[in-house]
Structures are given as structure tokens and as C-alpha cells.
Amino acid sequence: MGEKLMDMSCAAFADALAAKQSVPGGGGAAAYVGALAVALCSMTGNFTSGKKAYAAHEEDIQRMLERGDQIRVRLLELVEEDAAAFQPLAEAYAIPADDPTRADVLEACTKQAIEPPLEMMRLIVQAIELLEEMAVKGSRLLVSDVGCGAACAAAALRAAALNVFVNTSALADRAYAGQVEAQADVLLDFVPRALVVADTVTANIRNRKE
User: Fold this and answer.
1) The whole model's pTM is what?
2) Average pLDDT in the 122-127 region?
3) Domains, the chain
């Protein structure tokens, strides 16, 4: 693909995702959804900033906005990096089965392909922490957007984990695979935390008195 994935329109990216081609795939989708999750956190922060009612939280809002921007930019970069990491792996699977180098090349390429989704998970966890804080300190007028961001973050974290596990399951180096999977399992503990934010926002909205 000549055009950068993140230079595509939303519609073109969705078309590329649906097409009969290897990339973008689940990893790129996970990173993109994670970027949208933290973008919703940032939108809430931008609407909150400068409001007298939330002046006590202004310093925290600015900190969250700065970190949110960094996470969003990096996740969008990982859409590209995930696609780039998959290409050598796809080529390695095409090596003839009787080639003596095949197993080593596959192992190396598989380990390389694990890195982007594992980094996605780390960043999405940070996004969830920001959403938890924004749910408390952000404008009440934007609370549904925080809830949407949390729901997206939970989905993105699980999706990124799937892209880690599909690669670790193929590794011959089971010790390395176990270490990576242990890291991913710790990060997956943040899925319930994200869902608590989404569920709390939903309950508050539905129980709101006129």
C-alpha cells in the first residue's frame, strides 16, 4: 500500500480494512479505536478547560490534555507500525517448508510482530487511567463522551491483546511467550476498570432526574 493508512479518510480506511488484503487488520483497528478513545477524553478536557466551575481542576486538565495528545499520536503511529511489522511475517510464512532457515525467520518475525500490539496495550491502559480521572474532573456536560471513550478503550485493549496472543501462541520460545503473555494479562486487568467508567456513566445518565 503506497498511501499511509492514517492519511486515508475514515471511509477509505474502513474500505481497506474490509478488503481482501492482509493490512490493515485487527492490530491497526485496535490502535485506531484506542486513539479514538483517548481523543474523546481530550475533547472533554478541552471543553472543561477555562471553565470557572472546574477551575480547581485546571492544572490536572492541562496535564491530561498533554498526555492524551501524546497517547493519541503514538497510537496512530502504531497503526502504521503494526502493518509494517506484519509484512515480514507474511513473507516468512511463504518460505518453503523444506527451507532450513524458515523456522528461525518465522520466530524472529513473530517476535517483531508482537511489539506493536503490546505497546498499544500499554498506551491504552494509560488512556483508561486518564478517562477514569476525567470522569471525575471533567465537565458534566461531556460525561457521555467520557463513557464512550471508556467503552472504546475496553474494546481496544482486548483487541490489542488478541493480536499479542495470536503471535505468542505461534512461538517456539515458550519462555519468551510466557513472559509476554504475563505482561498482557496484567494490562488486561484494566478492561474491567474501563467498563466501570462506562457503566457508571450509563447509570448516572439513565437515573438523571428532570
Assistant:
1) 0.94
2) 98
3) 24-204 (1.20.120.680)
The string of DSSP codes covering 46-57 is HHHTT-GGGGGG
Contact 155, 40 (CB under 8 A): no
Cβ-based neighbours of 150, under 8 Å, separated by 6 or more: 37, 128, 131, 132, 135, 194, 195, 197, 198, 201
- Are 78 and 118 spatial neighbours (Cβ–Cβ below 8 Å)? no
Q: Dihedral sign, CA of 42, 124, 156, 22? A: positive
Of 91, 128, 96, 94, the closest CA to residue 113 belongs to 91
What pLDDT does residue 1 have?
A: 47
Cis omega (within 30 of 0) for bond into 24: yes
Evaluate whether 136 touches 146 at the Cβ level (below 8 Å).
Answer: no
Which of 179-187's residues contact partners 24+ apart within 8 Å by CB, and which partners? Answer: 180/114, 180/118, 183/118, 184/118, 184/121, 187/121, 187/122, 187/124, 187/125, 187/157, 187/161
